[in-house]
Amino acid sequence: MEPVAHWVRRRPRRLLRKTRREAAATFAIVVLAGAPLVAQQDAPELERTPWGAPDLRGIWDFRTITPLERPEELGEQERFGSAEAAAAFEQRTLARRNKDRRTGDGLSAQADVANAYNQFWWDYGDKLTEDRRTSLIVDPPDGRIPELTPVAKERVAERAAARRRPAHGPEDRGVAERCILGFNAGPPMSPSAYNNNVQIFQTEETVVLLVEMVHDSRVVPLDGRAPLPGDVRQWRGDPRGHWEGDTLVVVSTNFTDQTSFRGSGPNMRLTERFTRVGEDRLVYEYTIDDPESFAGPWTAVIPMSRNPLPMFEYACHEGNYGMLNLLRGARAEDAEAEAAARAETSGD
Questions:
Q1: N or C terminus of the chain with fewer C-beta within 10 Å?
Q2: Exposure letters 317-333 (e unless 16+ CB within 10 A, then b)
Q3: What does pTM read for this prediction?
Q4: Nearest Cα to Cα of residue 184 among 60, 308, 87, 292
Q5: 8 A C-beta contact, residue 124 and residue 194
Q6: Residues 191-234: pLDDT tens digits?
Q7: Contact indicator for 277, 283 with CB cutoff of 8 Å
Q8: H helices of 247-309, where?
């Protein structure tokens, strides 16, 4: 049976990335009173659509090796204090993630196989955010996800137990394994192993967010329509968008009980903000408010840079060989267990 790690990452080709765009406009993320704001010195006139809204259209790259959560050893340190300290962290991170390491420096043969691909196929990025933050999470101040509630811990444990036993059918596997949700697409979007790109389509009444990973498209109406009734649930939630000044705000509710981001539940309220801050820069911010699952709300800020290259189809889907092999393996395990039980009974 093919390991899950092998098949969930399949795609037809690797999208080659443009290297760092050092000439892009400079921006800063300013945190005041626990609320992240976007600021820019000498901001140029924003590109606008024919109907006057900030133009968000295009492909935006959100690679970064800045971790979502601040490493515990960094405590309350919001930023690396110097370029040298940031570079040292980058080098350590890149060395640890190098999939071409072999047993000579501590990577076992089993771990080498579990890596699924050699280094060529991985594209985490190689830089921290330009402001040298130690975490993408900016609130709470410790840069870490608030503790899960007892209800959320129980839900997470149940899902983990279900994944450990042989699968009766596809529904027993997680939505990420089935290529329905997850990876960097979320929602919310969060940098991951590769394909860290989102293409934004925009009209006066609609915005579409197409994430390269898991071929995920979210259609966001901007026309003020009412949310769906509470008993209508969707994999990616029910998004509604509006403009607050020059920032696009997308609020999503009505998630399913199978949708989870870092332990979130079906009643998560996800607020995403998209702000154009320069010719080649976009700031993406999201806040998760889910009191049933987390001890408090939390916010992350992710810089994005324009990618002039096209996106290709991400061929991860539920009907691929990985799922078929996983279920065949589960049935083989069932047959072995039944045979062993019969042998034990006949021996008695």
A1: C
A2: eeebebbebbbeebeee
A3: 0.82
A4: 60
A5: yes
A6: 999 999 999 999 999 999 999 988 779 999 999 999 999 999 99
A7: yes
A8: none
